[in-house]
Amino acid sequence: MKYIALKPRISEKAYAQSEASNVYIFDVPPQVNKFDIAKAVAAQYSVGVTGVKIASVPGKSVRAYRQRGRRSINGQRSDLRKAYVTLKEGDKLPIFAAPETPEAPKETK
């Protein structure tokens, strides 16, 4: 198995899905399939994977203006492929884990 670069998506929606339904979102290369993604997540994070869904998002058209609006430059953002990975019950990934900070004792007067 070749190495697959899994980039976790850090967003409010991704955080909500990870807390509510144990689903984590990753940006993946366009040439990999569901089976390769499941193997890569299981190997890199030592967790059990129960399901993988893939969504391909086309890049948006963008326009930039130069010379005070007389000339425009058209472009295209890159296409994006997201993998929604469902983990086994009880498994968690440390993507959104915050470091534990000890609470300071409250002062009394």
Notes on the protein architecture:
The protein is α+β, with helices and mostly antiparallel strands and 109 residues long. The protein has a single domain (7-87), classed as RRM (RNA recognition motif) domain (Alpha-Beta Plaits, 2-Layer Sandwich). It contains 2 helices and 6 strands. The strands form 2 sheets. The chain has a 4-stranded antiparallel β-sheet with strand order 1-2-6-3. Strands 4-5 form a two-stranded antiparallel sheet. A hairpin with a 4-residue loop joins strand 4 (61-66) and strand 5. The protein is flat, with a radius of gyration of 20 Å. The model has no long low-confidence stretch (mean pLDDT 88).
Question: What's the helix and strand layout?
Answer:
Blueprint: E1 7-8, H1 12-21, E2 23-27, H2 34-45, E3 49-57, E4 61-66, E5 71-76, E6 80-87
Antiparallel strand pairs: 1-2, 2-6, 3-6, 4-5
